Amino acid sequence: MRAAQKDDGSAYWEYELLYVDDALCISMSAEHILRKEIGMYFYVKEGSVGPPSIYLGNKVSKVTLDNGVEAWSFSSSQYVQAAMLNVEDYLKQRVKSLPAKAPAPFAAGYCPEIDVTDKLNTADAAHEDHCHTIQNPRSPFVFRPQPF
Questions:
Q1: Which residue range forms the structural domain that includes residue 64?
Q2: Is residue 41 part of a domain?
Q3: Residue pLDDT, tens place only, 8-51
Q4: Residue 65 forms beta bridges with which residues?
Q5: CA-CA distance, 13 to 101, in Å (whole number)?
Q6: Rg over CA atoms, the chain
Q7: How many CB atoms lie within 10 A of CB 24?
Q8: Which of 44, 79, 110, 133 would you call most buried, defined as having the most Cβ atoms within 10 angstroms of its Cβ?
Q9: Is 30 within 8 Å of 48 (Cβ atoms)?
Q10: Could you tell me if 95 and 65 lie in one domain?
Q11: Residues 43 and 100 in one domain
């Protein structure tokens, strides 16, 4: 993050977000920063610089807000769908499955802020990375993503 100036003289903040092999640059000079500054230290694949479509598994799209301002929107639908496929595969290996329909994502009266459900055991912990929202197979949390 650093201070920058637009062509019209107004001030703003530039952001460069790097994570392993994913980079997102929010700047009026994004291509220059990615190719010349970050590119001095990391290889930037030809054809990989442009408006973002995916960042860290999240769908990225440009939207216009109600006040007319253009902004970037992040949707985790792809990440959640992939996580749910992983959970379904995990359950299938244990001859279990998620319910076909859930009337609501949480059981009536469920309060996550006071949930003291035990965490997953060590053998199951590897699958926790794929779906952080699932604490325990007995948890009242049931989520079935709908296609967009």
A1: 2-75
A2: yes
A3: 999 999 999 888 888 889 899 999 999 999 888 888 888 888 88
A4: none
A5: 45
A6: 21
A7: 17
A8: 79
A9: no
A10: no
A11: no
* Contact between residue 63 and residue 73 where contact means Cβ atoms under 8 Å apart: yes
Q: Scanning the structure block, which residue is given the tokens 């190719």?
A: 35
Task: Summarize pLDDT for 119-146 with one digit per residue, the tens.
Answer: 766 666 655 554 444 433 444 444 333 3
Q: Give the angle subtended at the CA of 32 by the CAs of 30 and 34, to the nearest 5°.
A: 65
Do 135 and 117 contact (CB within 8 A), yes or no? Answer: yes
Bridge partners for 70 per DSSP = 64
Q: Give, as one character, the DSSP assignment of residue 79.
A: H
* Residue pointed to by tokens 């990375």: 129
User: Rounded to whole angstroms, how far apart are CA atoms 29 and 49?
Assistant: 12
Residues in the chain, overall count: 148
Retrieve residue 77's tokens: 């639908």
Q: Is residue 91 within 8 Å of residue 131, measured between CB atoms?
A: no
Q: Are residues 69 and 86 in the same domain?
A: no
Structure tokens at 56: 């860290």
pTM over 0.90: no
